[in-house]
Amino acid sequence: MSSNDESRFSFFSRKKTPSIDESELKIPTHIAVIMDGNGRWAKKRMLPRSAGHRAGADNLKTLCKNCGHYGIKYVTVYAFSTENWSRPESEVHTLMELFVEYFDRYDPELEQEGIRVRFTGDIEALPENIRAVCKRAEEGSKHRTRMTLIVAFNYGGRREIVQTCQKLAQRVKDGSLDPSSITEEMFASNLYLPDVPDPDLIIRPSGEERTSNFLVWEGAYSELWFSDVLWPDFGMQELTEALVAYTKRDRRFGGLSKEK
Ligand code: FPP
Q1: Which long-range contacts (CB under 8 A, 24 or more apart) does 249-256 make?
Q2: Closest CA to ligand 1's atom 3
Q3: Ligand 1 within 6 A of 53 CB?
Q4: Which CATH code fits 25-156+197-247?
Q5: Is residue 124 scored above 90 in pLDDT?
Q6: Is residue 7 over pLDDT 90?
Q7: Which of 36, 50, 59, 98 has the most ligand 1 atoms within 8 A of CB, as the residue to mutate?
Q8: Measured from the CB, is residue 205 less than 6 Å from ligand 1?
Q9: pTM strictly above 0.90
């Protein structure tokens, strides 16, 4: 790496610089991130878990900015799963409050970055005030085209598949759908956000190596990348490392690589 490259990466001073030129990176169209480790981040600082979630929400802004820098078009983040309702009521309340605050508070910054906001999940089952936030954020940002931020909220991959089955089963029952016409493409076109391309790369920080019911259908061929860094500390250094790893992957989608 030339000294010129070094200066371009100088803001990564905490750790070793990725040994690749930025212009050589293969940029995924869609990345998805499991924002894990907020609780451990807070515990390390002897702070309440709510402080970890707040720091995690702040870091979402940083992620958007960093993804914008690389020209990534879609970023999906896992903010609240269908299983997270089993957490203590006070923690669920904190997460709901953060959600309600977030999109109004940061709308000017999202606007400045040209970020459209969309939601995925069982949104209809959420309380009315949360649904209103979703509607306002989606309506107010739908003209923005630089990047789309998709927030998975009350999201579960299995629930998404079950709800899609229910929708199609209802059409079969009504007589408007022949079961033999249900193909993979047709099924996919009935998921929550059928117009969004599948994620190319799923990132999970915090040392856990599983996908926890995230994008079960859409992530069937996603590359996976794990990091030990806790979500509130996941910055440009870590994103770049993930992109370096992604650049080196040979995506075959069940076929053979081009060289073979
Ligand atoms: C998992 O970390 C994180 C969550 C369940 C919530 C993620 C939510 C945010 C980052 C903030 C809310 C987002 C928006 C859009 C306002 P954990 O708490 O399970 O961490 P731990 O495994 O260290 O306990």
Answers
A1: 249/223, 251/200, 251/221, 251/223, 253/221, 254/221
A2: 36
A3: yes
A4: 3.40.1180.10
A5: yes
A6: no
A7: 36
A8: no
A9: yes
Contact 201, 222 (CB under 8 A): yes
Confidence of residue 147 (pLDDT cuts 50, 70, 90): very high
Q: Read out DSSP for 44-92?
A: HTT--HHHHHHHHHHHHHHHHHHHHHHT--EEEEEEEETTGGGS-HHHH
Q: At what angle do helices 236-248 and 49-70 cross, to 10 degrees?
A: 50
Mean pLDDT of 94-110: 95
Q: Is 38 in the pocket of ligand 1 (CB under 6 A)?
A: yes
Q: What amino acid occupies position 33?
A: V
**Mean pLDDT, the chain, as a whole number?**
93
Q: At 26, which amino acid appears?
A: K
Structure tokens at 16: 């070793």
Are the beta carbons of 230 and 53 closer than 8 angstroms? Answer: no
- Model pLDDT, residue 15: 53
Atom of ligand 1 nearest to the CA of 99: 16
User: For residue 147, which of 92, 109, 97, 179 has the smallest C-alpha distance?
Assistant: 109
